Amino acid sequence: MFKVTDLAYAVMTESGMARPAPYLARAKWVSFDELEGLDPAEVADWLKTAHGLIAAKLTRAKRKELGL
Questions:
Q1: Are 46 and 2 contacting, i.e. CB atoms less than 8 angstroms apart?
Q2: Coil/strand/helix, residue 52
Q3: pTM for this structure?
Q4: Rounded to 5 degrees, what are φ and ψ at 2?
Q5: Each residue of 31-62: b (16+ CB within 10 Å) or e?
Q6: Contacts of 27 (CB under 8 A, 6+ apart)
Q7: pLDDT tens for residues 2-59?
């Protein structure tokens, strides 16, 4: 389960690749039943994007504290 961009959310959920994450769908989080059939490089890219999306919402002080 991870956060995606608005466009990725629409594409992933409409295509059936992923489903809206319980309780977090309104914040554009998706959930996968299995990641085994997916390209590892693509999944790594999604996770990198998710990390950036979450980090961008943190305060400057918290990002500094975490070394981001």
A1: yes
A2: helix
A3: 0.80
A4: -155, 165
A5: ebeeeeeeeeeeeeebeeebeebeeeeeeeee
A6: 3
A7: 999 999 999 999 998 899 999 999 999 999 988 888 889 998 999 999 999 998 889 9
